[in-house]
Design goal:
Radius of gyration: 46 Å
Helix content: 25-40%
Order of helices and strands: HEHEHEHEHEHEEHEHE
Strand content: 5-15%
Amino acid sequence: MKKTANTRHNKGQGGGRYAAFAILVLILLALGGYYFFSSPRKAALPPDPTKVEKTVQPSVPVHRDIPLSNKIEPVKPLPTEYPAEPVVRPQQIAPNVIGKTDGGGKLAIIIDDMGTNVSEARALAEIGVPLTFSIIPGLRSYREVAAYSATKGIETMIHIPMQSKGWPARRLESNGLLVSMSADDISERLKGFIRDIPNAAGANNHMGSEFTEHADKMKNVLVELKDKKMFFVDSVTSPQTVGQKVAQELGVRNARRNIFLDNEQNSSYILGQLDQAVRLARKNGAAIAICHPHSMTIKTLAGALPGLEKQGIKFVPASELVR
């Protein structure tokens, strides 16, 4: 009986130790929870700049049904020259027939758009063949070009600015003639042009694909030219021009352009057009060609005209081919 009592006493002591241990663990857990939830948290540190990853931008979806190149319009350079009037082909233009010559022919070359600077006039004069300068009144050096031409014996014309079909989108000089102008306004403007270029022997139209189709407006112009005994050359910037027809009705000496030499600015094209003008001159006895004082045109003419003169082509002022 004594042994049994000791055993129970030992078991009682062991159970008490386990209970005390459990209570201690619970106390430690309670203290830890209190410390964790009640202690202030440290502020977040700024990110290390050396470890910051680059932000990847989301890709922009591209519509594959439309090529990218079709979405971007190229920037177009501003034009440095006036846009050309619609080209009227030689076969649409009646020839200036004056009778065949001995294997040669007469060729008048009118240089339009003169008056920007005198250096162009000098370079053309140095070619050494008769040319006709058609001067736009109001250009920067038009008076100087007219005076230079007079000292060199170069025939001059008034290059009358007239409304085109593309106006107002197509540029026209501020002194240009419009179909909306009255007869008195047109007459006064023509008288001013004649005063500004007093040595001009005649005139032709600058642009004018719209204006030259109106007989009443052309009559206002041609009456003033007739009063000063000046001739008119129709530049034929429209197949429906009535300029030469009205001039004939009024008794104004007249002719019409056969070939534009330099609608394209490359030497091969200009030489090809010049060859057509020479063929017409030889076939019909005479032809009138029009070009402009572009550097490529001047260079090409300087290289070609003296040789053509040696081949029997006679270069003449425009006044020699009007009738």
